[in-house]
Amino acid sequence: MSIADNINNLKKEIGDGNVKLIAVSKTKPAAVLLEAYNAGQRVFGENNVQELVEKYDQLPKDIEWHLIGHLQTNKVKYIAPFISLIHSVDSIKLLQEIDKQAAKNNRIIDCLLQIYIADEETKFGLGFDEAIELLRSEEFTSLQHVRIVGLMGIATNTENPKQLKDEFYELHTFFDGIKLSYFRKEDAFKELSMGMSGDYKIAIEEGSTMIRVGSLIFGQRVVPHWKNN
Q: What is the predicted pLDDT for the residue at 121?
């Protein structure tokens, strides 16, 4: 199956409704992304800032770039001029830096709050209480150049469909509560980024509006050469 076939099959499966397909292109060279682009894919997700900037420079400018990996504050300035959506906001400090860099570029940057839902200590994200605390804080209300448009979560890496369903359900329930309490009048707050290659079907059933799919489009990921040294 070609990359184009994989994309077309996924898009047929998810339909033309409310679910956006984000092609997770980390470690893949620009030429491979171009194959996906030529098949009609316009939204790409990257984990690594340096890799993202390099690909942005090499590829067509109508691509919508999403940063889906953990973001350090000192790297925000490199993506602030062009990033479409940052999925992985997990602190007020990071949000303040995004706001600062967005202001320098005279733009408003859309962000998702990353919520910790997995039963694994290796994942990043805000706890439910921490997210509420952030949204209630004076620091947050003073920000002028960021827009929170939804939530993101990464489920536990498990084969257990019930656990995945429960984690996604919990995040969707929390999303509904946050929408009602803090974003009731804001139409832009509508995105729920959850689901990857192994669990996107369950995520869609539980209300995901964005799925982050890599290996089902591009094949298995190659370990970067610097990790083999």
A: 77
